[in-house]
Amino acid sequence: MINVTKTFLPPIEEYNAYLRKLWESGWITNQGKMVQELEVRMKERLEVEYLQFVSNGTIAIQLAIKALELKGEVITTPFSYVATTTSLIWEHCTPVFTDIEDKTFCLDPAKIEAAITNKTSAILATHVYGYPCDVDKIAAIAKKYKLKVIYDGAHAFGVRKGGRSLMSFGDITTLSLHATKLFHTVEGGAVICNDSEIDKKVCLYRSFGHVGDDYFTMGINGKNSEFHAAMGLCNLPYVDAIITRRRELSEYYDKKLSALGLQFPVKSPDLHYNYAYYPVIFSSEAAMLASRKVLLENNISTRRYFYPSLNTLPYLKADKCEVSEDIARRVLCLPLYPQLTFQEADQVISHITNK
Ligand SMILES: *Cc1c(COP(=O)(O)O)cnc(C)c1O
Q: What is the value of pTM for the model shown?
């Protein structure tokens, strides 16, 4: 079986060394040494000022919404994982979907202004597959209308744009460090910002809103444990090698699939990409489903990611987003993970047609 993804696990002795330290100290959660060290190391790796390690990427978005005090309407992308949208609804905001660009599949800045009303408080956009949103245009719109900006950076670990860390744009960027993501801590997430006041709020909200006997605000339990931090500390030194291997495999796919007339996200020249996914857009939904079926018959799993377009979720009422709905119907993510061999990639390639 070739799966669409396979979690990277470090050599077990390396994780065991951390476990031994935990058994010695007996301190396994509540901002222990490993969580603190992971936060420092991630800040260095991502070149960002403030970062809080949290329990998952969904709670990271919810903490971001709370810390920026968003209310009313939030303009957001229909082409993302469902958690981007449901976090807004969970925090009593109304998602207003505007359509995506057909090159990066990120929120189209040209469509945002028309959707702004006097109830709009923010823009929540996703760096889809790790491809950057048009952060400059979004910043200009946010400034003009005094809106907050959150980037769901769940796919964008380590991405740089114009020499700058993509995680440093917007008011807050959130990460997911789930086992299926490029860099993972089994379960986990992070809230990144460059404002100490916002960071302080996130820190309080993450641990029930109190420090010792001083109760400052309402909060929630968004903490993560030493076991999860230990996995992150083990995995972090391997990230560059993981990205390199993913790039080799992606370029191999690029070369071998180039004659089929498939569509791919467009990389801008100033992008330092992380090869988090390998999405392919077929000429039609029927062509995608036909290849997917043959792949599955040959024990190769793929993922319709993202499908459906979030504006069509059965429990929502939202306007049409033609580009997003069209891409969501035709896109398929192919197997991509560092342990994948070129022979396995050849098997995948041999079953793909675009008719
Ligand atoms: C994975 C993912 C999330 C959710 O992260 P979890 O850690 O699974 O809660 C949110 N947004 C996007 C775009 C994702 O891919």
A: 0.97
